[in-house]
Amino acid sequence: MGFVGSAAEFEAFYRQYVGDVSRFVARRVDDPYTAADLTADVFVAVIASAHTYRPERGSLLGWVFGVAHHVVAAERRRVRRESDAGRRIAGRRLLDAGDIARIEERIDAERDARQVYRALDRIPAGTRRLVELVAVDGLTLAEAAAALRLSPIAARVRMHRARKQLRDLLDSPILNPGGNTHEYA
């Protein structure tokens, strides 16, 4: 684009429009450091998007103000995201070493349960629902069969296969790198 093709052209362009851009930004931002940074950001954005300027669509100043509007809007979104993040953590107390130790103990204590869930994810969905109805929800095998519209014999066969699959998975090095055997199913 002709207005930012060479360093001299950009300097002339900058000198011509810096006052307009500074005023545009200053009307929208109350911090002088932010205003200065955003003014510089506008000119960086102008260089990056100079190829999109079309004189037939309006004046160069109007286009520059459009770029400035996008830069200021992006800054407002950034500030809003930071503010939202600050509000989310406000009021939460920081964790001390004892808190972290208790959380680590809890995570370690639930390691076996996480292995069982990973193993359950590897068996077919219909069989997994049967196992969950019996093991998690406390239904009898007959009740779970009825809930899933299975015959009692089909439910017994699936449960038998699921127990074997779970035992094999829990003893596999993929889910149980330590090699411990578990008696879950």
UniProtKB/TrEMBL annotation:
Residues 114-166 form the RNA polymerase sigma factor 70 region 4 type domain. Keywords: DNA-binding, Sigma factor, Transcription, Transcription regulation. Residues 13-81 form the RNA polymerase sigma-70 region domain. The keyword Cell membrane does not apply. Belongs to the sigma-70 factor family. ECF subfamily. NCBIfam families: sigma70-ECF. This is Sigma-70 family RNA polymerase sigma factor.
